[in-house]
Design brief:
This protein has eleven helices and 17 strands. With 389 residues, the chain is an alpha/beta fold. The longest helix has 24 residues.
Length: 389
Amino acid sequence: MPSDPLPGLEPGLEPGYDVPALPGMSLEEIETPALVLDLDLAEANIALMAERAAAAGVALRPHAKSHRSAEIARMQIEAGAVGVCCQKVAEAEAMVRGGVPDVLLTNDLVDPRKMARAARLARTARLTVICDDPAMVPAWSRAAEDAGVELPMLVEIDAGSAACGIDPGAPAAALAQAVDAAPGLRFAGLQSYCGVAQHIRSPSERRAKISAAAERVRLTLDHLEREGLDCPWVTGGGTGSWEFEAAGPWTEVQCGSYVFMDADYQRDTAAPGQALGEFANALFVLTTVMSKARKGTAMCDAGLKVQTMESGPPRILLPDPGNTGLEVLGCSDEHAKIADPDDLLKLGDRLRMTPGHCDPTVNLHDWLVGLRGETVERLIRVSARGRSL
């Protein structure tokens, strides 16, 4: 597959100016700090998720917020995904411009300007939107009519996160009726995503949380049937829980982090046979030790402008932290402080770190360095980086 265009790679430009590396370079030639993607592992993750979803009888619609890359979205679609999810209109615009034909906008919108942009996007791609409040419906209807499109719309119900989502049952069915009656809109199904379940560490507790969410979905489906509304599409589920949603009544899963994985997901315990235990950490921060001024610690060049810490510290992959006692103690803007109790590290040593949380870490980078073995195969543009409007 061709990469996204690389306009910064004209002759005469050097790595480190626009890009951390060039295709054909070795791993050792990559300038740090850099966000590196092991292509063999990422492709295996993509194939595994597609195969498991197909075997479970559910559609796969990966969440593009994990990678914000049209190229990776196309890889997922080529492997069998039906499309992608996006959280932001600008993210959806970047996906469509990058050749993604089918986008579900999974975030609630209240700004008529954003609704208008989304409706215009539906002229060139299949775009589905959501709502969780009857007050949203008139503005969405106007946006669709002004753009000359019919927008399929999902009603979002609270799956148990107590965040977004209308109450299940009668309130959700009433909203679905309002959507279906509005010019330019068509009720297409339900969104029920239980975000809080993704990092419940115990698989039995994750399963129980999703079982409770399933009861909310079934209650809503019963009310929709009473009102004569067909609901062929129920979407939700994430990397940590999707097998539980796939057992029903969900028809589609929205896993995102599986493509990269991260240190926080590694803290979840997988149920027997759950794919969560088979996805590999394909994404890592490549960083260089830049100071050994004090015994027992080292400083490297991957701070908060390179990786986020809200889900805990990154995990050091090389050298093996189990043998050396290496661990990240914290990050400042430009540095990560590493415990090095045996003073094994020296200036210039390069380390790989699995980010604590892949999604916001990716959003800090313009490029992923696509590595095949020990060689840079291509650069992958983070085409929706910073596109949060």
